[in-house]
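Appendix B: complex inputs.
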Amino acid sequence: MSDSPVSPAPARSERTVPPSGDPLVVLDRVNKHFGALHVLQDIDLTVARGEVVVVIGPSGSGKSTLCRTINRLETIDSGSITIDGRPLPAEGRELARLRADVGMVFQSFNLFAHKTVLENVTLGQTKVRKITREKAEQTARTLLDRVGVGGQADKYPAQLSGGQQQRVAIARALAMDPKLMLFDEPTSALDPEMINEVLEVMRQLARDGMTMVVVTHEMGFARSAANRVVFMADGRIVEEAAPDQFFSNPRSDRAKDFLSKILHH
Amino acid sequence: MNVLLDNFALFRHGFIGTVVLTAVSAVLSLVLGTLVAACRVSPVPPLRIFGTVWVTLLRNTPLTLLFMIAVFVAPQILFPGISYFTLAVSALGCYTSAFVCEALRSGVNSVPLGQAEAARSLGMTFSQTLRLIVLPQATRTVIPPIGSLMIALTKNSAIAGSFNVAELFAQQKRLSEIGYNILEIFVWIALAYLVITFAISALFRLLEHRLAVAR
Ligand SMILES: Nc1ncnc2c1ncn2[C@@H]1O[C@H](COP(=O)(O)OP(=O)(O)O)[C@@H](O)[C@H]1O
Ligand SMILES: [Mg+2]
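Resulting structure:
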């Protein structure tokens, strides 16, 4: 078991690879505004290599924005973000290179609509990593099998169910061999019966030791796969704790209030 | 006597002139329009300003005036000895590129933002994102308006006839000088334009159809 100060491993975690305590992502006093709205307020967050951090909080609290600043889809006004010891560069080739190391999975899948499933998973490898087509296809097929959609390789995204599309999106991100995966409400756009197939893929990823930041309302996933829960409200991190501790004994009133609303319905 | 049959060589010469002038100008306008559209949606402010100025100037200037600038001003200060055909292609191509740019830009805006965000998240550069992800998806929406622009270009090419370019419309003047009935000349010339514009319509309908099933 890890005794790292940033990430005490919870008792019920299924994880086999304990987080090392070696910081991979560090956010230091990050602030961001959308016009007059102060959407991220003095955010400090460290994610250790191999750690799974679940971000929860009411709608509009800034969870997506937080997630998107980590690969600089949103710029920040002040503070700093480093990934693997390197500060996020400004827009350009260097940033593109860094983004290739950070996988992102969106609520709305965002698969390339004009490309087949296979092409979706090979495109980044061939165009960004400059891997040969044969090798990229081999990797893509392995990954598609791993997420359980190997049989759909030649279809277009619109021909797949939401759950299948999201699993392809995960495979597309994994094909870049990322150091870190960001998930922004990956199951919120799915019909209930498809949520589990996506969560199961994510659980397996967590067991394999992938570093993950997951924005989700799936408390079951947070309990079983997270090392740490980060609770956000109104642009601030209000509370951080191991999942068991957070769900059984939240400290802040905001968290108590939030949990009572989502657990009783 | 029949205007068309008696002067078939003249008509054919004009017809080919119009087709070539239209085709070359169309290619120029599509290439320029795409580049200027890329400027207009790029994250680099000077490029965006260049794109906006290009579109504003060319779209708001009467084409005849552009022709006059191309034919009377450009050769004197920039390119002495350049052919009328090249000048006409430049004027038509640049003018139409402003409209092509705006059609493409509206097409780009019709592609959901998430597509570009997913591409950037994979580490694609701006130009890869545009080339591989956004423009191919924008193409389908922009095919019909660009088809209309190419038809307008065909008809606008008639202005070149007044500037010493041998094309369809210019033959009308020569024939009426010889003494043919002007109405009859016009009917034949109009029919010749219809042949070209119908061909363009058919081509774009085919493209639209092809791209629709490719999804
Ligand atoms: N691009 C944007 N422009 C302006 N306001 C935005 C933008 N994106 C998000 N916001 C606002 O920022 C706040 C936080 O949004 P978000 O990070 O999406 O919250 P969450 O994901 O926690 O629901 C919301 O009030 C939202 O309306
Ligand atoms: Mg959100």
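The first helix of chain A runs from residue 63 to 70.
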